[in-house]
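Can you give me the bound-state structure? Components:
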Amino acid sequence: MAKINEKVPIHTILIYCSKCGTLLYKYQKEGLGMLVKCYVNRIVEDNTNGDLRCPKCNQEFARVATIHNRPAHKIIQGKVYTKGHCKK
Ligand SMILES: [Zn+2]
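Here's the bound-state model for the whole set.
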C-alpha cells in the first residue's frame, strides 16, 4: 500500500453503488471518518466510464469538484457505500 504522506494514515477502501452493489472505485482514503469526496489522483481503480455514474444502473453518485486545489469527485451522500475504512 502506497504511503504518500506519513502523517496521514492511508486506507484503501472499496466504493460501491448503494443501489445495485457494483464496485465503482478502489480508493486510497486519507485519514478516518466518512467519505465525502474522492481525490482523482487517489482513485487506484476506476470501474466506471468516467461519467460519475454507476456503469450498471446509471445512478449518479458524485459530482466534479475542486477541493484544496485538487481535482476531486464529491460523493452524493447515500448513493454509495464503502468497505474497508472502519478497521479497529
Ligand atoms: Zn448501480
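A couple of observations. Residues 20 and 50 are 18 Å apart (CA to CA). The chain has a mean pLDDT of 89.
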